[in-house]
Specification:
The structure holds 3 protein chains of 3 kinds.
Chain A: H1 15-41, E1 67-69, H2 84-88, E2 94-100, E3 108-116, H3 125-129, E4 135-137, E5 152-153, H4 155-160, H5 186-196
Antiparallel strand pairs in A: 1-4, 2-3, 3-5
Chain B: E1 9-14, E2 17-22, H1 27-33, E3 57-60, E4 67-68, E5 79-81, H2 85-100, H3 116-125, E6 142-143, E7 148-150, H4 160-167, E8 174-177, E9 184-187, H5 199-204, E10 210-212, E11 225-230, E12 239-245, E13 250-256, E14 287-290, E15 295-298, H6 300-313, E16 319-324, H7 329-342, E17 347-351, H8 374-383, H9 394-398, E18 404-408, H10 419-427, E19 432-437, E20 450-453, E21 462-465, E22 471-474, H11 488-504
Parallel strand pairs in B: 1-5, 16-17, 16-18, 18-19, 19-20
Antiparallel strand pairs in B: 1-2, 3-4, 3-5, 6-7, 7-10, 8-9, 11-12, 12-13, 14-15, 14-20, 21-22
Helix pairs in contact in B: 2-3, 6-11, 7-8, 7-11
Chain C: H1 19-24, H2 29-36, H3 39-49, H4 61-65, E1 76-81, H5 91-97, H6 99-113, E2 117-123, H7 127-142, E3 158-164, H8 173-180, E4 204-208, H9 209-221, H10 223-228, E5 237-243, E6 250-255, E7 258-259, H11 260-267, E8 277-281, H12 292-297, E9 299-300, H13 302-307, E10 316-321, H14 326-340, H15 346-363, H16 371-382, H17 390-404, H18 406-415
Parallel strand pairs in C: 1-2, 1-4, 2-3, 5-10
Antiparallel strand pairs in C: 5-6, 7-9, 8-10
Helix pairs in contact in C: 2-6, 2-9, 3-6, 5-6, 6-9, 14-15, 14-17, 15-16, 15-17, 16-17
The chains are: A alpha+beta, B alpha+beta, C alpha/beta.
Chain lengths: 200, 505, 416
């Protein structure tokens, strides 16, 4: 941006001199804007304006926009339904219904995970509260109802809407993984069977 | 165990303050009474002392080592300290040891929010863990009973559950197997825990090792509100608290409260089923009037007018009350003061379950009389000079050829095995029957003159008198989500004032 | 030390285990003498003799006996023959030499405390000793030393031999009682002490084999004769078992207060040729290790050991040669306690596992240099925090090795 030197308001000059000062200043200003117009008209200078929405415009990845849920590396939703996001949410817009997962190493998962996007204030507390990097606020800023009408985003929409290109992997997956321990140690098995048969 | 009943007393110093307790009291019990918090896991006032968690360390002046307060009998002149740096350090380290092999399960653990480990981490812990080695992994999510899920990895081996099985239910279903840090809690072989007191294991477990199948993953505990009530499941009348989330209009669970004379620390699993009929969709939500072989809803004032008109229409004819023993003392008194004293009704029938075995008792808490207030009903009747014995008078009511019957149905239809059959028979009577109920089922029986929705026990205050005459209060009432529901006392008050008005007119 | 052969009297005698040999050498005479006295007199006699428990803690035996509440008549005597402390093999030596000495001692002790039923608790690994003991018990029953109305005194006494499964923790007295009751071998919380409520909730005295076996000698020779041996506070003789690179490892009986240096040099014949001393564990694996300069000064009695921050324990002297890697020693020690911890008390259950786990990382060269400080801290917080002394037993040697051999431990890490 250019800097225009504006003469000090005349102190001890007469009215005409003062008026002249104002007029020259205005003309100088007009000249600057008109020159830019001319330059851009003849493509001598690049315009900063984007033809949105015809032209796409993206925010950086840190932008706290539309929420999404991450995935485990096996494709399951990473969320463990701990309700911490729902607890932290000041707008009370997250609804979770937890259920028992068939895999014992996962145990708990959200049967339903819904965000009422009309209520959301985009504070990002849910993202902060999440212990497993399951929910993030992404760079998408266009809040449209899912499927055209639904302002309450469902789990399916949050995990795998088209913009997510098949889902995003959680960074906290491998370290949190718990291998399934089914069998007991030999000693305790033996002990149990002894007790069962009344030998001990 | 906590206190022993003796006259003798001892005075000792607890953190410099003189405390006088009965002889034989442990320092832990005394501290609890004095509201001095000593962290503990294995000690439970209802169980024997195990002394294994080594968390409740205190310093006794003049003794070289720290000692556990749960097994330390207070002696005269003893100077106990629970706040010095040495003691605090021991608490911190005891917690560190407890957490050394504890999995980071809090996000999926139902106990989170009421977990001893979390609670004590905030009060005595707050350290950076030095445990960087590999943790011991143990089996998770084991099915060990009808109502229980066991996670042996979360278990801190406090042995409360083992002692409960040995001392309270005397079933001995649980044991600790293997040794050292490989030790795990488990049932013998493939056996399952099947007794009627399983969920107490969930209550006494200080961590999330035992979780209830019923409540599992339903709700996080910090969302729940808690109100004191009395279990209406049987005539023992255990002190309970009902946990609910009023915004969701749902009751989630029932937990026992301590009542020395009634239930101690426990309650049975049958008692935890009392919430089963309280779902909004199982409740009668509106007043219904019978209108040419079908029910039509009506507003509250209309129903009161309807009942009033019935009362004046049947004035001088035979009016009967059929009452189940599941209402509060206050409700009975109000009911009888109106019907017996004002209206001169003398035929009052007890409505009881057909197949009840009155004298059944499981030896711990559950009684055959599945009504919470049998005694309260008889006491209230006696006040109005109607002397009765406990007896099912349903048949007598049917054959009494009454013209108008006000039937106060059981609030807990689950403890009435013959409820539906009774409803069917009642609805076929020639007399005019007004049914006061909470159950949605009543709508299936067209014969009733009217159906009046009532609020249920978590939504009212009052008193129950249990089998041995202990009078206990239902202290906390949730706002009823059956907005059209009537409170019996209020309803009778309205009828009463209307009658007065009509007499004046 | 030929002048004091109390427990090793039958050393070198042929067929020493038989009743015949025992009687020939004046056996069961103490029993006859004891029956002429009142039980209280025997308790007083043992108290006066200054006899202390030989199992490890060194608690005065007579005092322990006097704790029994007078109003409970059903009492038990248990003989702790479950010697599990690594390095200890003294009790089995008594059984090998003369099981009747133990039987006689038990009858007298039972008479003194008023018990009519006693058990010997032996670990199952002692195959031969179990056989010999059983034979001796049978002999004693046949000869009328056990059973009803012993020697016409009107005193009934039954002795049973119970074979444990060999858990270290069952050598702890309340652990032994639990095991004998048919439960999992786990120590019980004290108080109540076993002398008040022990086996089956009745007053119970648990004594070490060596302690009980010495009682007949005290009755025969009087308290003052016993007190004259050893030091003022540690009276009498004791069996010491020495293992490691010495010329004559084995069991030797010496009076308490005997210098450790002399014991190694004279009794055990000194170190093997070409072996340099690195340290000595004086009282079984759980005793803190002593450095060579400490070995020069220390004497074999409870007080002297305590002044060097170690303990006499069960009298198992383990000699460590210069070539022994202390990291490996520490690892073996901690693996042992990790395996043997009963898992009841949290500091011990988690602590022993934790320490063993850290040692595992050390061996795998994955540990950081501050790991020893961490181990020291963990061990310090395990000490004195549990029901029984297993936690202390794991913590004490750990702390001693870390403080005394820190540079070697660190070198191990740096070498990788």
């Amino acid at each position: 941006m250019g800097v225009i030197k504006v003469p000090l308001p005349p102190q001890d000059t007469n009215v005409f001199q003062a008026a002249w000062g104002y007029i020259t200043t205005i003309l100088k200003g007009l000249f600057v804007t008109k020159m830019i117009l001319v330059k851009q008209l003849f493509k001598l200078e690049k315009t900063e304006t984007i033809e949105w929405p015809e032209e796409p415009a993206d925010y950086g990845p840190r932008f706290k926009g539309k929420h999404f849920l991450t995935k485990r590396d096996d494709g399951n939703v990473r969320c463990t339904a701990c309700f911490l996001c729902a607890t932290a949410c000041p707008a009370d817009c997250i609804y979770i219904e937890a259920g028992e997962h068939k895999s014992k190493t996962i145990e708990k998962y959200p049967v339903r995970f819904e965000i009422d996007i009309l209520r959301c204030v985009f504070c990002g507390f849910c993202e902060e509260a999440c212990p497993v990097d399951a929910i993030r606020l992404g760079p998408e800023y266009i809040m449209l109802p899912a499927d055209g009408t639904k302002w309450v985003y469902t789990k399916e929409y949050l995990v795998a809407r088209t913009n997510l290109n098949g889902g995003i992997q959680s960074i906290k997956d491998e370290e949190e993984k718990h291998p399934e321990v089914t069998s007991l140690t030999h000693e305790s098995k033996h002990h149990r069977s002894l007790v069962k048969h009344g030998k001990h | 165990m906590g206190t022993v009943e003796t006259k003798e007393e001892v005075t000792f110093k607890l953190n410099g303050i003189d405390v006088t307790v009965p002889k034989g009291t442990t320092v832990m019990a005394a501290a609890k009474r004095e509201k001095v918090a000593i962290p503990h896991f294995c000690w439970h006032p209802g169980l024997s002392v195990a002394g294994v968690c080594r968390f409740c360390m205190v310093k006794v002046k003049g003794r070289p080592k720290l000692e556990i307060s749960c097994n330390l009998e207070a002696t005269p002149g003893m100077e106990v300290d629970t706040v010095s740096d040495e003691v605090k350090d021991s608490h911190k380290w005891a917690l560190e040891f407890h957490l050394a092999n504890h999995p980071l399960d809090c996000p999926i653990c139902d106990q989170a929010g009421e977990c001893g480990l979390q609670k004590y981490y905030m009060s005595v812990g707050k350290y950076n863990s030095q445990m960087t080695e590999e943790k011991v992994l143990k089996p998770k999510a084991l099915d060990v009973g009808d109502k229980l899920v066991l996670d042996t990895e979360r278990c801190i081996l406090c042995s409360r559950c083992v002692r409960f099985e040995n001392e309270v239910t005397k079933t001995g279903g649980l044991g600790i197997f293997d040794r050292g840090d490989r030790a795990i809690i488990g049932t013998y072989g493939d056996e399952k825990i099947t007794h009627n007191y399983q969920e107490n294991l969930v209550d006494i477990c200080p961590v999330g090792a035992f979780t209830s199948k019923e409540f599992r993953f339903k709700q996080r505990v910090w969302f729940l509100k808690e109100k004191s009530s009395i279990c209406p499941g049987c005539s023992t009348g255990c002190a309970v608290s009902i946990h609910a989330k009023p915004e969701m209009e749902t009751y989630f669970r029932v937990k026992p409260r301590y009542d020395k004379k009634v239930n101690g620390h426990w309650m049975c699993d049958k008692g935890r089923e009392i919430l089963s009929g309280l779902d909004k969709k199982e409740r009668l939500e509106n007043s219904y009037l019978q209108d040419q072989d079908e029910f039509s809803t009506c507003e509250r004032p209309d129903m009161i007018n309807h009942l009033n008109s019935l009362l004046s229409r049947f004035r001088g004819k035979k009016i009967s009350l059929l009452v189940s023993a599941q209402y509060t003392n206050e409700e009975y008194e109000r009911l009888f003061s109106f019907f017996v004293e004002k209206m001169g009704v003398r035929s009052i029938f007890q409505w009881r379950s057909k197949e009840e075995k009155l004298n059944d008792f499981d030896g711990i808490l559950l009684r055959g009389d599945r009504n919470p207030n049998t005694r309260g009903l008889l006491d209230a009747l006696r006040k109005f000079h109607i002397l009765k014995e406990v007896e099912n008078e349903f048949e007598a009511c049917l054959t009494s050829s009454s013209d108008l019957i006000f039937a106060f149905s059981p609030l807990l239809s689950s403890s009435f095995s013959s409820f539906e059959e009774d409803l069917a028979r009642l609805s076929k009577l020639k007399s005019c029957v007004c049914l006061f109920t909470t159950s949605y089922q009543a709508r299936d029986y067209i014969g009733f003159n009217s159906l009046i929705p009532l609020v249920s026990f978590p939504e009212k205050t009052g008193h129950y008198t249990n089998y041995k005459g202990e009078k206990r209060e239902l202290e906390g009432a949730y706002p009823s989500f059956i907005h059209e529901g009537f409170d019996v006392c209020e309803l009778v008050n309205e009828l009463d004032s209307n009658i007065k008005a009509s007499l004046r007119a | 030390m030929a002048e004091h052969k109390i427990l090793t009297e039958f050393e070198g005698i042929k067929d020493s285990r038989s009743l015949k040999t025992y009687l020939k050498h004046g056996g069961y005479q103490a029993l006859a003498k004891a029956f002429q006295k009142k039980p209280e007199e025997i308790v007083a006699l043992v108290k006066e003799s200054g006899l202390r428990g030989r199992g490890g803690a060194g608690f005065p035996t007579g005092l322990k006996w006097s704790f029994i509440p007078a109003h409970i008549k059903e009492r038990y005597l248990l003989c702790n023959n479950d010697e599990g402390e690594p390095g200890t093999f003294k009790d089995r030596y008594i059984l090998e030499l003369s099981p009747h000495m133990l039987i006689e001692g038990m009858i007298i002790s039972a008479f003194a405390i008023g018990a009519h039923k006693a058990y010997i608790y032996t670990r199952c690994e002692f195959y031969e000793e179990i056989k010999w003991m059983n034979e001796a018990i049978d002999e004693a029953y046949k000869a009328g030393y056990l059973g009803k109305n012993i020697l016409g005194s009107g005193f009934d006494f039954d002795l049973d031999h119970y074979i444990g499964a060999g858990a270290y923790i069952c050598g702890e007295e309340t652990g032994l009682i639990s095991s004998l009751e048919g439960k999992k071998g786990q120590p019980k919380v004290k108080p109540p002490f076993p002398a008040v409520a022990g086996y089956l909730g009745k007053p119970t005295i648990v004594n070490n084999t060596e302690t009980l076996a010495v009682v007949p000698w005290i009755v025969n020779h009087g308290a003052s004769a016993y007190k004259a041996i050893g030091t003022e506070k540690s009276a009498g003789t004791k069996l010491f078992c020495i293992s490691g690179p010495v010329k004559k490892p084995g069991v030797y009986e010496v009076p308490l207060g005997y210098p450790l240096k002399d014991f190694i040099e004279k009794e055990a014949g000194g170190l093997r040729d070409g072996v340099e001393l690195k340290g000595v564990i004086p009282g079984g694996l759980s005793a803190p290790v002593l450095l060579p300069e400490e070995v020069e000064k220390v004497t074999l009695d409870y007080e002297s050991m305590a002044s060097f921050k170690s303990m006499l324990g069960s009298g198992a002297i383990i000699v460590i040669p210069k070539t022994q890697c202390m990291v490996e020693l520490l690892k073996v020690t901690l693996d042992f306690y990790h395996h043997e911890s009963c898992g009841q008390c949290t500091p011990c259950r988690e602590g022993t596992g934790w320490l063993a786990n850290i040692m595992k990382t050390v061996m795998q060269a994955k540990a950081k240099e501050d790991c020893y400080d961490k181990m020291y801290e963990v061990a310090s917080h395990m000490e004195g925090r549990t029901i029984c002394a297993l936690s202390d037993a794991a913590a004490m040697p750990t702390k001693a090795i870390i403080t005394k051999f820190k540079s070697e431990l660190l070198n191990y890490l740096r070498r990788g």
